[in-house]
């Protein structure tokens, strides 16, 4: 059986959209293409339940400002992005 192997989600989306076959992706990777109708979800009833996402900083002591800024930025973006997928 012929197979296509790609290294990026965008290449997999393009191949699936061009009719090459099915691909397995995380929803956030293909949400835009699904929304635009370029690809469609199949086997949705077999998708696992969503799991929570956590951002942790393991070091002890004072949190560096650049880490705090990143965590605040990432938290906002993740909430918006993951909320849109729900």
Sequence-ordered SSE layout with sheet pairings:
Elements lengths: L8 H9 L9 H9 L29 H21 L1
Task: Sum this structure up briefly.
This protein is mainly alpha-helical and 86 residues long.
Relevant terms:
mainly alpha; 3 helices; 86 residues; 2 domains
Q: What share of the residues does DSSP label as strand, in percent?
A: under 5%
The tally of structural domains comes to 2
Structural shape: elongated
Fraction of residues in H or I helices:
40-55%
Number of DSSP E strands: 0
End-to-end Cα distance: 36 Å
Structure commentary:
By secondary structure, the protein is an all-alpha fold. The chain has 2 domains: 1-48, no CATH class; 49-86, no CATH class. 45% of the residues lie in helices and 0% in strands. The protein contains 3 helices and no strands. The protein has helices spanning 9-17, 27-35, 65-85.
């Amino acid at each position: 059986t012929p197979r296509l192997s790609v290294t990026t989600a965008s290449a997999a989306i393009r191949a699936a959209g061009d009719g090459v076959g099915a691909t397995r992706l995380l929803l956030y990777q293909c949400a835009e293409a699904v929304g635009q109708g370029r690809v469609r979800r199949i086997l949705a009833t077999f998708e696992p339940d969503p799991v929570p996402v956590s951002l942790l900083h393991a070091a002890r002591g004072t949190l560096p400002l650049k880490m705090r800024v990143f965590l605040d930025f990432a938290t906002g973006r993740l909430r918006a992005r993951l909320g849109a997928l729900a």
